[in-house]
Amino acid sequence: MESFDGRQILDEIFKRVRIDFKLGISEYLAALKALNGGWCSNEEDCKETLQLLWCQSPSQQEQFLGIWDVAKVTLATAVRQTSEEFKQPSKSQPPLKSPSTLAEIKTTTPQTTEVWEVPSTPRFTSLPTRAPFVATDTETPTAFPADFPLSRRAMVYHWQYVNRPVKDGCQDILDVDETVKIVASQGFFLSPVYTRQETNHAHLLLLVDRNGSMTPFHYVMRELVETANDESSLQKLDVYYFHNVPATSIYRDPYLTESILLSNLLKTCNTNTSVLIVSDGGAARGYRRFERFEATTRFLDLLRQKTNQVAWLNPMPQQRWYRTSAQLIAYRVPMYPMTPQGMSRAIDTIMGKKLS
């Protein structure tokens, strides 16, 4: 293609991968928003952007690259055929005859009817076909387990314990003990005693690491956020995203496009705010970088000026933290592996409970 058409390649790729990758209208609109925002100005940027938005595993990334090449060839062939059709000269029309000539032809030429012979049996010919694309596994197997130890059901179960009950609801619950106490003291019954319903006043701030080494865990992070939103009784839940380290700005959306200042976010926190950070802390790639540790330490110091109820969930197993940035960060904040036991201990920490 002479000029790159991002919308055309986006539509072609989406039609090819939407079923296998389980994509919906929200993923298409996110890619369209990135296209309109200038993230797909050339072929390489467009390929990288769509791969980040739509691929959830290394195998899907490999499959995406093959589909991208096939879509490029298909679009280039379509454009070339269209240009050749426009270049073909139109058939020349015969010269118009005068009325006298037409009259002579009419009188001299006998009227004949042409009979078209219809073949008795249809002629079948082979149609061109393209071999289907078959995704192959990568040569180096991924280091992450296929079945993540923390299931969706376990997430739903543990979110129920993020609870800070306050009796400020409707006063329609019968208090049997108080009613019996009043009757015993007065010697007769006048009216029952009612108490107020309890309301969950817990405020959870969920900070999720995105992209980079956290790409293989995007599906798990999406399940974690969905269960916190839909399956919990939290009155106030704030979900924000960052890349590697919460710097001066963090993001409202998982695509890291809608930024917000960290200082403005910290203004909404108080001593009753529970903060749960989800990140590998560099353990996925085995890196030990002091720059990341120092930046994370500065963020934790700012956060502890507002609340001490902070915990860290690491999707990597604890034995992978050794000699990485995660091992250093674990000395500054309670860090737990992303397992049912680890999530239970993390929730006890952010709710201010003492661990045995």
Automatic annotation (TrEMBL):
Record's superkingdom? Bacteria
Entry protein name: VWA containing CoxE family protein
The organism of origin for this protein: Oxynema aestuarii AP17
